[in-house]
Amino acid sequence: MVITVTLNPCVDRTIEVEKFQYGGTNKVLMTRNDISGKGINVNLVLQHLGIENLATGFDYQEDTKKLTGFLDRLGCRYKLEPVEGSLRVNVKIFDCASSVMSEFNERGSAVTAENVDSFLKLLYTQMDLASVIVVDGSVPPGVPEDIYERIIEEAGKKGLKTILDASGELLKKGIKAKPFLIKPNQDELGATYGVAVQNLDDIIRTARKVIEEGVTYVCVSRGSQGAVLVSKEHVYVAEPLTVDIKGIQGAGDSMVAGFCYAIEKGMNETDLLRHAVACATGSLLHPGTQLCEKEDMEAMLSRVRIVEV
Hints:
The protein is an alpha/beta fold. The protein has 10 helices and 14 strands. It has helices spanning 38-49, 64-74, 113-126, 147-157, 168-176, 186-193, 200-212, 251-264, 269-283, 294-301, and strands spanning 2-6, 10-17, 28-36, 53-60, 77-83, 88-95, 100-104, 132-136, 161-165, 181-182, 217-221, 227-230, 235-238, 306-308. The strands form 2 sheets. The protein has a 10-stranded mixed β-sheet with strand order 5-4-1-8-9-10-11-12-13-14, sandwiched between helices. The protein has a 4-stranded mixed β-sheet with strand order 3-2-6-7. β11 (217-221) and β12 (227-230) form a beta hairpin. The longest helix has 15 residues, at 269-283.
């Protein structure tokens, strides 16, 4: 089973415009609201893929029916820690002409140290049921920056594989606990080590530093340039696929779900990357955060081309 951790769930308000006019008037083509958060998105895709999963995180009581109602409709099991406050709202403006998304993300409602301790106790009691733990996304005010490091360390004691998808100090500290896989983008990888990451050689060189710290796999997402998977002995490059893009929000989370699927199925390195890229690409076919369906993944698998360098 896969357990996801979403400490800063949200409502994603996606607004589509024909061509974004900065400082001007924009005619809205479509607006949709989706319950989201990186871990929640992973749960959504895993449900589509038929992989047993459990959602964990904070449940803001002012909007509890929105979050738990969504998970109930999805058929996803959950163990959530109730906290005061409301779900943050993230506004995503999608420029249809350029296929570019501009994001305006709120910080989230603050939680207490007691909330954090209670959540960790809840999470740790569930770990014996899992094989993979996904820790990802931002955290609300009140959550310490070493929270992911602590979770990964506990999961390691129990022999679980962890996937870390975060940025800033959350990523930097999380790496210290030696997760199984991290999935930064180019900029996040460079910022973590204070170096410029501009091309494939930079990615490989910097990813090797992460591997030296005890991480098994580093997958670097490169947007329109595809993705790179680095391990101690191999480097694999997945070329991007050309599809009719309906939305880009959640593509990275779909990629994480693809990794989870392949791990749960006991697949090899190249198939880990193949399924991750197939799921990420499949999510591009849907607006908002509807994300990848199983048939999307299956349709994309044969199109994913992976080269070892």
